[in-house]
Amino acid sequence: MKIICVGRNYGKHAKELGNPIPEKPVLFLKPDSAILRNNKPFFYPHFTKNLHYEVEVLVRTCKVGKNIAEKFASRYIGEVGLGIDFTARDLQEECKNAGLPWEISKSFDNSAAVSEFFPVTDYKSIGELNFRLDVNGKTVQNGNTRDLIFSFEKIIAYASQFMTIKTGDIIFSGTPEGVGPLQINDHLEGYLEDKKLLDFYIK
Ligand code: MG
Predict the structure, then answer these.
(1) Which of 40, 203, 174 is nearest to 106 (CA)?
(2) DSSP assignments along 116-160, one per residue
(3) How many whole angstroms from 5 Cα to the centroid of ligand 1?
(4) Structure letter (DSSP) for residue 177
(5) How far apart are CA 124 and CA 121, in angstroms?
(6) Is 181 exposed, middle or buried (0-12, 13-18, 19+ CB in 10 A)?
(7) pLDDT at position 17 over 90
(8) pLDDT in tens, 2-12
(9) Which has the closest alpha carbon to 151: 126, 117, 176, 130?
(10) How far is the CA of 57 from the centre of ligand 1 (A)?
(11) For the chain, which domains are there?
């Protein structure tokens, strides 16, 4: 499986990092070794001094497909979850400034925290999901998937032009505004539609 991530997919977040609103989805990948499951603690990596949280709504695909038309893309979405796209913001800035790929800042071990997944049929509309992240009991990010610049269907249609979508691929759809740094002992709690799905510590 692979993890497909979308950058700059909420307008206010693109702005807070000084980036333009993209005309096409900005895609990058994380390897399967990046997955952190079951609310296990995240260990602060030695190679960064500016680790950021980015809470994101996830979908897991349930079919294989290539060149998927947007109008059929929802058929490929099997499950929904919540995740944290951990980012070494200092390394990312270095890579961006040098015009280089930013994988080392985004794709390191445990950089993709994922919740339990739930059938997409449990939700009325994945285009209208509330989600939020609390750090140490204080809400730091609050989003709704209606504000996605590129919907889940658009992401799948676009990505599948370049890479085959496989069963069990996970899509990180992008983060709303409010990203920020984390410290050791911080407590992260993530909610999707008022259900707590993420609850773990930085160690
Ligand atoms: Mg992200």
Answers:
(1) 174
(2) --EEGGGSS-TTS-EEEEEETTEEEEEEEGGGBSS-HHHHHHHHT
(3) 7
(4) S
(5) 7
(6) middle
(7) no
(8) 999 999 999 99
(9) 126
(10) 10
(11) 3-201 (3.90.850.10)
Instruction: Say which residue the tokens 């609310």 belong to.
Output: 39
The per-residue pLDDT for 177 is 96
Q: For the chain, what percentages of helix, strand and coil (3-state, to nearest 5) are there?
A: 20, 35, 40
pLDDT digits (tens, 9 = 90+) for 63-101: 999 999 999 999 999 999 999 999 999 999 999 999 999
CA of 189 to the centre of ligand 1 (A): 17
CB 33 within 8 A of CB 158: no
Indicate the length of the chain as a whole number.
203
pTM of the predicted structure, to 2 decimals? 0.97
- Find the 143 Cα to ligand 1 centroid distance in Å: 13
Q: Does pLDDT of 192 surpass 90? A: yes
